[in-house]
Amino acid sequence: MAIQTAPDQDQWTRPSIWTRWGPKARWGLIDILVIAYAIIPVLWIVSLSFKTPSTLSDKSFIPNEWTWDNYINIFKTTDFIQALINSIGIALIATLIAVVLGTMAAYAIARLDFPGKRILVGVSLMIAMFPQVSLVSPLFDMERSLGLFDTWPGLILPYITFALPLAIYTLSAFFREIPWELEKAAKMDGATPGQAFRKVIAPLAAPGVFTTAILVFIFCWNDFLFAISLTSTNESRTVPAALQFFTGASYFEDPTGTTSAAAVIITIPIIIFVLFFQRRIVAGLTSGAVKG
Amino acid sequence: MAEIVLDKVTKRYPDGALAVSEANIEIADGEFIILVGPSGCGKSTMLNMIAGLEDISDGELRIDGQRVNEKAPKDRDIAMVFQSYALYPHMSVRENMAFPLRLAKVDDATVRAKVDEAAEILDLTQHLDRKPANLSGGQRQRVAMGRAIVRSPKAFLMDEPLSNLDAKLRVQMRTSVSKLQKQLATTTVYVTHDQTEAMTLGDRVVVLRGGLVQQIGSPQFLYDNPANLFVAGFIGSPAMNFMPATLADGKVTSPLGDVTLTDRVRQLVEAANANRDVIMGVRPEHFEDARLIDDAARGGGVVFKSRVEVLESMGSDKYAYFNVDGRHIESQELAELAADAGTADAGETAMALVTRLSAASGASEGEELDIWFDADKVQLFDPESGRNLTYSG
């Protein structure tokens, strides 16, 4: 009898599967939902890019007929290749300039007390919040009269303008993390302010710089609004804008397949960029500098 | 190696706050000098001014007879050890220590030799290839010292270098800092808020309060002859006991009874032109269990009776705490000291009289005891100015 009742009691006292695995299961479920929400559209467009024109609307998630034609087609047109070159060039140049300027500005904001500091921070925050769409028409007019319309600088300049506040904010947070005493120590060790920055502060700020570079690059790479408004030809049209002008094999044919293939292609540099830099973003690099 | 002279050095912040006011200090070549005071007394500001990390508003700073007010830190040839150590986290211990030499463009062989030598002195040889993050607090502290000593600078500046270590290690490092300084014979300015460090380390101690130099002298001299109430209260642990008293005809009436001043003290007090109201100060070790004092000696002091509130036996000594009535003193200086020690709101116990009795004393908690104290060791202070009326410096 005793043997039989024991399991019954055990069932009451032992936590149920749900409570034992509860937290893990719940978090796992939420994780799966979030990942699915993010990745299904991507998989969908990948699937579309491999479909033949006739099976495009067959409502099947996995293509019934696989084809590389869409990819071959986009690389046959000079439009896409030129757009890709524009995108890479413009985004890299804008990122480089924004990060260099942002690093210097952020360092000044984090470390120095100068008149107008609050105003500078305020203005940069204001620029970041400003609705970009309201600037498109004035920029269009300005760039046309300055001869910047439909040129690389014509896009690089607004990108830098809007990326800088982002860069300054992210970087000044990183600079604030670096103990000021390290710089004093470098000065006492005989470093000029330039040497102290190059040999001590910059290496420690590197993770911040790379993080910012990724964010700025993604911002420039993804921009559609400026790209569509401030360009008119293949001279400077970037991929997000160029996608708009894709046509199928004939005028009446739906370019969905090629557009999807192009969309997949332009995701690749971002992935490479992030993978390349994430190794450098090592948290806790400053540990051991001060007491701790 | 160098002598450092502060000639009316003043630091005034843009908002008008005065951090250091007309400090005159002459630091001899090879001397170990301690700047001590409660937080906010300007000691770190003074150190930063010597280092060149903060501008000097007024006055002149001379190193080896040369005015260096306008020189950048790197041109002063001074090394500094920071409270937080400020090690470069991305460099190994070797690179950290070699950094000043690399900046000075010293050739590789010399750098290696000097770093190895410093590592030997500081017992860091087996840690040279590790990163600061993998070192213990004491090791980090030694790396910071190593970075300072490798380039044989004119002077060392140390900003509370031991305050982040735990108590045991601090005592150990205190000895090694002292030994190292003697070995290298380099002029050293050491900032601390810990009066024990000040007493044990320095050749001379500078006591600061609110940006003003209170007194400069050897630790023993400051202990025996504090210039004012502040120095008397700051130097010594446990601190000197203070109580209000009145002075008339060479006699002090205090809560501990009437004290007939010895001739030596009376002459000092007369020369100082003392008022009627005074503050009497007696150090804990100048009290003794009356039973242990022979009759001949008894006459040179005062005996009073009180109940032992708390008794702490240290083995070598016994600390007995008493409550004495009428001990409340209105004094800015004592209030500041209490605030710094954190006893300002400790209430009753802060008012207690602390005595250090010999281990042979038969004192026991809760019982009445006859206590004797040495009348010749009594110090009297002016309640208004805090001046020591019995100062014989």
UniProtKB/TrEMBL annotation, chain A:
<dbReference type="Pfam" id="PF00528">
    <property type="entry name" value="BPD_transp_1"/>
</dbReference>
<dbReference type="GO" id="GO:0005886">
    <property type="term" value="C:plasma membrane"/>
</dbReference>
<feature type="transmembrane region" description="Helical">
    <location>
        <begin position="260"/>
        <end position="277"/>
    </location>
</feature>
<protein>
    <submittedName>
        <fullName>Carbohydrate ABC transporter membrane protein 2 (CUT1 family)</fullName>
    </submittedName>
</protein>
<dbReference type="InterPro" id="IPR050901">
    <property type="entry name" value="BP-dep_ABC_trans_perm"/>
</dbReference>
<keyword id="KW-0813">Transport</keyword>
<feature type="transmembrane region" description="Helical">
    <location>
        <begin position="152"/>
        <end position="175"/>
    </location>
</feature>
<keyword id="KW-1133">Transmembrane helix</keyword>
<feature type="transmembrane region" description="Helical">
    <location>
        <begin position="196"/>
        <end position="219"/>
    </location>
</feature>
<feature type="transmembrane region" description="Helical">
    <location>
        <begin position="29"/>
        <end position="50"/>
    </location>
</feature>
<keyword id="KW-0812">Transmembrane</keyword>
<keyword id="KW-0472">Membrane</keyword>
<feature type="transmembrane region" description="Helical">
    <location>
        <begin position="119"/>
        <end position="140"/>
    </location>
</feature>
<dbReference type="GO" id="GO:0055085">
    <property type="term" value="P:transmembrane transport"/>
</dbReference>
<dbReference type="InterPro" id="IPR000515">
    <property type="entry name" value="MetI-like"/>
</dbReference>
<comment type="similarity">
    <text>Belongs to the binding-protein-dependent transport system permease family.</text>
</comment>
<dbReference type="InterPro" id="IPR035906">
    <property type="entry name" value="MetI-like_sf"/>
</dbReference>
<keyword id="KW-1003">Cell membrane</keyword>
<feature type="transmembrane region" description="Helical">
    <location>
        <begin position="83"/>
        <end position="107"/>
    </location>
</feature>
<feature type="domain" description="ABC transmembrane type-1">
    <location>
        <begin position="84"/>
        <end position="277"/>
    </location>
</feature>
UniProtKB/TrEMBL annotation, chain B:
<keyword id="KW-0547">Nucleotide-binding</keyword>
<dbReference type="InterPro" id="IPR040582">
    <property type="entry name" value="OB_MalK-like"/>
</dbReference>
<keyword id="KW-0472">Membrane</keyword>
<feature type="domain" description="ABC transporter">
    <location>
        <begin position="4"/>
        <end position="235"/>
    </location>
</feature>
<dbReference type="InterPro" id="IPR027417">
    <property type="entry name" value="P-loop_NTPase"/>
</dbReference>
<keyword id="KW-1003">Cell membrane</keyword>
<dbReference type="GO" id="GO:0055052">
    <property type="term" value="C:ATP-binding cassette (ABC) transporter complex, substrate-binding subunit-containing"/>
</dbReference>
<dbReference type="InterPro" id="IPR012340">
    <property type="entry name" value="NA-bd_OB-fold"/>
</dbReference>
<dbReference type="Pfam" id="PF00005">
    <property type="entry name" value="ABC_tran"/>
</dbReference>
<dbReference type="InterPro" id="IPR003439">
    <property type="entry name" value="ABC_transporter-like_ATP-bd"/>
</dbReference>
<dbReference type="InterPro" id="IPR008995">
    <property type="entry name" value="Mo/tungstate-bd_C_term_dom"/>
</dbReference>
<dbReference type="InterPro" id="IPR003593">
    <property type="entry name" value="AAA+_ATPase"/>
</dbReference>
<protein>
    <submittedName>
        <fullName>Carbohydrate ABC transporter ATP-binding protein (CUT1 family)</fullName>
    </submittedName>
</protein>
<dbReference type="GO" id="GO:0008643">
    <property type="term" value="P:carbohydrate transport"/>
</dbReference>
<dbReference type="GO" id="GO:0005524">
    <property type="term" value="F:ATP binding"/>
</dbReference>
<dbReference type="Pfam" id="PF17912">
    <property type="entry name" value="OB_MalK"/>
</dbReference>
<dbReference type="InterPro" id="IPR047641">
    <property type="entry name" value="ABC_transpr_MalK/UgpC-like"/>
</dbReference>
<dbReference type="GO" id="GO:0140359">
    <property type="term" value="F:ABC-type transporter activity"/>
</dbReference>
<dbReference type="GO" id="GO:0016887">
    <property type="term" value="F:ATP hydrolysis activity"/>
</dbReference>
<keyword id="KW-1278">Translocase</keyword>
<keyword id="KW-0813">Transport</keyword>
<dbReference type="InterPro" id="IPR015855">
    <property type="entry name" value="ABC_transpr_MalK-like"/>
</dbReference>
